[in-house]
Amino acid sequence: MAIRVLLVDDQPLLRTGFRMILEAEQDIAVVGEAGDGLQALDQVRALQPDVVLMDIRMPRMDGVEATRQITGPGRDGPAKVLVLTTFDLDEYVVEALKAGASGFLLKDAPANELVQAIRVVAAGEAMLAPSITRRLLDKYSAHLPSGDEPVPDTLHTLTEREVEVLKLVARGLSNAEIAADLFVSETTVKTHVGHVLTKLGLRDRVQAAVYAYESGLVRPGAQ
Questions:
Q1: What is the dihedral of CA 68, 20, 120, 167, to 10 degrees?
Q2: Those residues with Cβ within 8 angstroms of residue 222's Cβ, 6 or more apart along the chain or in another chain
Q3: Which residues, including other chains, have CB under 8 Å from residue 16's CB and lie 6 or more apart?
Q4: pLDDT at 169 over 70
Q5: Residue 120 — φ and ψ, nearest 5°?
Q6: How far is Cα 186 from Cα 208, in angstroms, rounded to an integer?
Q7: Distance CA 105, CA 83 (A)
Q8: b/e per residue, 26-41, with b = 16+ CB within 10 A?
């Protein structure tokens, strides 16, 4: 079955461009469009998309609040949110990730990256590009704890190896890269990541990365 996509952006020309790119793919179907967050909520309820391609800065309701309402607690719909951001990174992207977005994509990304991002998010994975994620979190380090705050109790539920894995996830490493770093198999890494997400009550790797920074486990700028 085709991946059902809802396009949310206040610029009609951008929506048209995204639609042309996505509709050229046999496994993707654009089921609707919205020009702001309020329209997006209505369209999500009516159309039940698999992936919402969400702009941040829009009138009436921005992409952060719309993401929160689409993916927040108590929501059992299938929609995953992929946030669109400008090249210089919108100041609200961290909030969108905390609100439940499954990743983010630069607006000027090549067409093949847009298509791949849609497929990755639809499959239940997080769109976590290492270089961009690190740059994003470092850029907004002023909004994150300094590392001197008490460690959350939930972090103590992790084993020593799970903490190691969480740190590497926060750096944006893939399962293969983590496996190579820890000298274990990718299957073992997947198991550890799954345990981390379950124990911490997190949706995906993106939220795990944000958690690692917010908890002080990883400090912005640290290697």
A1: -60
A2: none
A3: none
A4: yes
A5: -65, -50
A6: 18
A7: 6
A8: eebebbbbbbbbbbbb
pTM of the model: 0.74
**Least-confidence region, from 7-16, 62-71, 81-90, 106-115:** 81-90
Look up residue 138 and give its amino acid: D
- Give me the amino acid identity at 118: I
Strand partners, 106: 85
Match 């995204």 to its residue by tokens. 18
DSSP string, 152-179: PGGGGGS-HHHHHHHHHHHTT--HHHHH
Q: Which residues pair with 103 in a beta bridge?
A: 127
Residue 54's pLDDT is 95
Residue 201: alpha-carbon gap to chain centroid: 15
Q: Is 25 exposed, middle or buried (0-12, 13-18, 19+ CB in 10 A)?
A: middle
Supply the mean pLDDT for the chain. Answer: 84
- Residue-wise pLDDT for 178-222, tens only, equals 999 999 998 999 999 999 999 998 877 878 887 887 787 876 655
Comparing 169 with 129, the larger pLDDT belongs to 169
The C-alpha atoms of residue 39 and residue 24 are separated, in whole angstroms, by 25
